[in-house]
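Subject: Interface between my chains keeps coming out wrong

I've been trying for a while to get a sensible model of this assembly. When I model each chain on its own everything looks fine, but I need the whole thing in one frame so I can look at the contacts. Pasting all components below, labels as-is. Any help appreciated, I'm running out of ideas.
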Amino acid sequence: MPALHPKHIHGIEGQDPLWERIREETRIAIAGEAILASFMHATILHHEELESALSFHLANQLDSPSASSMMLRDVFLEAFSSDETTRRAIRDDLNAVLERDSACHEYHLPFLYFKGFHALQIHRVGHWLWQQGRHSLALFLQSRMAQKFAIDIHPAAILGHGILLDHGSGLVVGETAVVGNRVSILQSVTLGGTGKVDGDRHPKIGDGVLISAGAKILGNIRVGEGAKVGAGSVVLKDVPPHTTVAGVPARVVGVPTSENPALDMDHDFPESDW
Amino acid sequence: MPALHPKHIHGIEGQDPLWERIREETRIAIAGEAILASFMHATILHHEELESALSFHLANQLDSPSASSMMLRDVFLEAFSSDETTRRAIRDDLNAVLERDSACHEYHLPFLYFKGFHALQIHRVGHWLWQQGRHSLALFLQSRMAQKFAIDIHPAAILGHGILLDHGSGLVVGETAVVGNRVSILQSVTLGGTGKVDGDRHPKIGDGVLISAGAKILGNIRVGEGAKVGAGSVVLKDVPPHTTVAGVPARVVGVPTSENPALDMDHDFPESDW
Amino acid sequence: MPALHPKHIHGIEGQDPLWERIREETRIAIAGEAILASFMHATILHHEELESALSFHLANQLDSPSASSMMLRDVFLEAFSSDETTRRAIRDDLNAVLERDSACHEYHLPFLYFKGFHALQIHRVGHWLWQQGRHSLALFLQSRMAQKFAIDIHPAAILGHGILLDHGSGLVVGETAVVGNRVSILQSVTLGGTGKVDGDRHPKIGDGVLISAGAKILGNIRVGEGAKVGAGSVVLKDVPPHTTVAGVPARVVGVPTSENPALDMDHDFPESDW
Amino acid sequence: MPALHPKHIHGIEGQDPLWERIREETRIAIAGEAILASFMHATILHHEELESALSFHLANQLDSPSASSMMLRDVFLEAFSSDETTRRAIRDDLNAVLERDSACHEYHLPFLYFKGFHALQIHRVGHWLWQQGRHSLALFLQSRMAQKFAIDIHPAAILGHGILLDHGSGLVVGETAVVGNRVSILQSVTLGGTGKVDGDRHPKIGDGVLISAGAKILGNIRVGEGAKVGAGSVVLKDVPPHTTVAGVPARVVGVPTSENPALDMDHDFPESDW
Amino acid sequence: MPALHPKHIHGIEGQDPLWERIREETRIAIAGEAILASFMHATILHHEELESALSFHLANQLDSPSASSMMLRDVFLEAFSSDETTRRAIRDDLNAVLERDSACHEYHLPFLYFKGFHALQIHRVGHWLWQQGRHSLALFLQSRMAQKFAIDIHPAAILGHGILLDHGSGLVVGETAVVGNRVSILQSVTLGGTGKVDGDRHPKIGDGVLISAGAKILGNIRVGEGAKVGAGSVVLKDVPPHTTVAGVPARVVGVPTSENPALDMDHDFPESDW
Amino acid sequence: MPALHPKHIHGIEGQDPLWERIREETRIAIAGEAILASFMHATILHHEELESALSFHLANQLDSPSASSMMLRDVFLEAFSSDETTRRAIRDDLNAVLERDSACHEYHLPFLYFKGFHALQIHRVGHWLWQQGRHSLALFLQSRMAQKFAIDIHPAAILGHGILLDHGSGLVVGETAVVGNRVSILQSVTLGGTGKVDGDRHPKIGDGVLISAGAKILGNIRVGEGAKVGAGSVVLKDVPPHTTVAGVPARVVGVPTSENPALDMDHDFPESDW
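Reply #2:
Try treating it as a single job with all components included. I did that and got this:
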């Protein structure tokens, strides 16, 4: 099936083509693999709405004696129903996976399986709690996410729409970090602070930025829009927009081949000036 | 006890000396530690054959409301019983740990405890499913593995025999990656793609290669047999056989001191030409 | 509430101000968030002593069909009650978080939520078992810790007091590693061996050292007291005391701005001599 | 605390004195028993409304791999919110326990602990499903109830308000049974059918009837209002109103000492005419 | 759908019409109730054969930390595959429910939901184990059955084919009891011993007997074929064939209206001679 | 093995022959049945003392999200260690099974499997709590026992030593009931109250009494020592010592053949005077 038209991702004329697509994909998957029928029925087909299903699936994964899935689901549903921004972000994030991950051509795959997507949505709920002053519960969710997915995002961090956390293991995002829209972040990346001072001490990442695997970006610095951070780089100072940086410590090594490197997922970088 | 003779790893004259050894080691361990008796009986001594025990142990670890251990175990048993190659690979992988991990002198330790070994065997089953077109279930297994072990191997990736995934946390292996025989890969390594194009876009790793901790190898490039990739390196172009590369981006910095650096696990590399 | 006076961390005149503080913080948190009341009552308020609560909480997190929480708790309680050093270390480690983590101002947060803290305390119990020759159970705990937290510390490794494992995901510490007091270690760090020889083959880290995110320190080398290892560095040879090293491979790039970089958590480093 | 005024059981002026009472009793219980604080917070204090708490508690008890607590809770909540009759019945049933059980003086006790009360409310939901033609799910709930509580009530059976199922173990109520209001039924009672014919074949129990422990009432017979059925009786034909029957088979042995023997719970009966 | 022809219950020409029927009924049930789709897929549709499904379902219900569902399922499968008699008995018992329970017109209902049926099949496995001298495991199964279903059948007891344990709660069957074919036993029945002597001390129940709710039959006595035991009776001496007994203690009160009272399920009995 | 000498049941010269016997029996059982090895190691062999094992086993069975096994075990251990009477009673109750149950010749069987024994020991702990005014927790334990075992004993009820609750399903014992020493009670028995008055309203059962299956004893009446209550009887008035009563309602029908009918377990009774 072709990808959905971007306009349809957030619904059209009271319909939800994205959720319909996910259900249709799921029906096909079940037909081919009886072992998964039980899981897919409970998680997808049982639910009339995407938000009902997502809250069910996330709560199921975070279930523990410390906080039952029933309790957690109430929190997720409350967040999704009271916050239109989050509902839009969920769909933009799903779209981002299809748009950028060459190995993924079906919407139900990130919905069911990609822990980067799951952690991101849990963060969105945690951030919504944090904004309302419910810090304890937000920190609890962060802790469960870190333990379950090895992805550690402080609930105060601000993340835009259309984010792809690819694979995600080892990702750390600090309290005062800000990430723009349409950003792609690979595994083992750190957006970390430096020093012990309170206050604004984590990176600000512009729109469309690509951060390759294992990059560490440290301190209250700015990575300009459309920039690319090479794999394994350690970035300690500002990165100008639309430049490529790489190395330990990172230096400007070139210019990305497109406006939005996050969408191209081209992790190569020139070595000529080394 | 001395290591088993390599010829005996895959059985001899209808006997299975490896499984006998594992059971014997386990009996000794139980005698010294009553707390583990329950676990070791259920996981090892209860089983007449290695494959029965391994399917039990892996299913136990992946058990979730989404797919019960009983269902998963049927899949593992089916794979192990129908695929002689996988059965041989399991034994070669166990042997690889004993051969190369200085801290490990007993076969039951990786069998019971090493998540790199567990993830590798789950991948082998996932890959067997993938080859039969059962992509849904293969992706489900990948997802459970990624969540449980923080090890993310696409089921289409082709891995040889005698692989050591040491520690394993943070490992990512992409869809079209190919890994030869007798390769050692440390934690936080990425064998990743670059760009959004479909098709062959991940690294090809030759026999006997050693990939040290945190190395990122990106794109459809070739790491020649007997090569060594230094810790923290970012490899963006082909690596000739029997060379050592290191750095961000990686350059040739020398020649490994042996034919098969994977077997030596010598992670040092010269800095002379920096 | 202001931080506790360091003298009071280990108790004063038969009182335990630290545990009282944690309980008081918890009562305040419950008042603001009913969803967590159940968890916090069971984990904190139900317990008269810190060690009772910590053993309960850790056992709860490691609970599995392989070893029930009840069994594990007996082991933790035995270790905590028979080993005064461990009891002191727990308190020093809690204090280290408050002292160095700008985002954390309450003692109950690391106690309940920080997986670096949890893994560290499980290691302390595992190490206590290892010293008594109970290697099987120590390796079992290591395995559970690695699976649950993506933190892998060999039980033979020797870790001092006042350690901060910040975030922790991806950390690997080898068998013969030694870590001094007041050390801070970020996520994705490796203190690894090199070569296949048995015996002493892992790093020795001096007091007050700061190891930034993603650094790999390999081999039986010495990182001198008060040194700083930059993010993403690969360290293959000795680091003199009170120097800053960075790069792949790492070189001396400067001098930390304080005696104890671990306490400052300043991850910046100069690039001037590159 | 004195019992609530009957008028207040169903709420008064937008208030819910019953739920407030249950919460108040629970706060007192927690103050005296820290071990239960966790359970009581999650089950009572966390919930603003009785129906939210009851659906949570019942779902928790019926949770199984076959149907998760999250799924079941949605069903309970749907029934409670769409059916005012059920909401009234819940309160009448709670009141019945306080009114008739000499050992029980607090409303939170049946709410939390009495399996007769729990089974009765599950039946009410099952009956609501049955009436809508959702027979499969109704039978599923019956099955879970029978397994969990040893109480087996066919979802088609019609039960009135203010029912006390005291202890409840072994109770069986058949498909076409009808039970009036203010009835008390002890443990091991059967309201069973006789013969294989379809159609109306189970007892009809009038208002205010008391059925003592172990009584078996079989066939489409009528037990008149205000009647009393002695313990261990086997009733095979109609029982006139306001009479006491006893024996195997049961005969009229006297007249109850009150209008509503169900409220008196007087299980004695005369032997004079034997 | 009409009941299956009795000849087809055990399969015909390599086909298994009973299993096909159960699957067809289940597909219809799923179409009407999405909540059960997950459970029914996992328990019925996922399985090619009745025995595979039944072993899965029973193991799921007996799952506990003491013996995992995976272990138990192996035992059930072994019993079902090695014992043709048991396979026939399962089908006869299913047929007995349809034949005699007026409230049940579908084969999948007892298969999925009726605890009397489940306990009976677990007993069949336990008895098979007992016959092979595996008394420990047989007693373990009895214990799990008693706890889970409140049905307690000693594994040495011999039960025929086509048995209906209706509702089942409270049933106790002793070690040397023997039950013939086509017997119906209601809830709270005891087939008990008397005295402390070892050896044969429990009842022998003939073919076609009906034992009504709450009857206690005690001692090594014989209930002749086609007899009926009234509800609540206490039987202490032999019952001639084709007679009805009732009372405490039981006396002959008449003659059943059919050859096989177990098939008619007519629980009425005459009182004339009292 | 012969039964232990009664003098040795409570220990002799600092030894605990009963616990040694149970462990020895368990070792033999394991040797014959590998499937149970895991369970038996965790529950018996892992424990140095009977009380440690029993608290572990009971807590395991009552484990639920409402109160974890860890919490419950602390309560059981506290009761067993602070109350010598309970410790003696446990042993007397175990001995009672061996002494009276013809089907049971090994001490580990009731310890591991008999729910009557388990419920009785949970009651002993609940009663200990009740006596200290911890009514909430005592009622919680009663509720868990009723749900898990279908055995419902009010924690205020006073039970003597050497009690056999045979099978146990359906047993109900009321608040002010008192049961003497060396009493045997079969399944489905009720020791119930009558009327709604507070205060003393349940039966008092003398030493050595045998209460057969299904008997209902109602009201503040006295069953004299050495009396026997026939199966299915309904007892509404005092029973003289050393008499046999039976019927609905019960009448004196004879005299037991021994001083302590509870020890003989002879459930027969004469019908001559009916």
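Reply #3:
Confirming on my end. The interface with chain E takes residues 34-35, 37-39, 41-42, 45-46 of chain A (CB under 8 Å).
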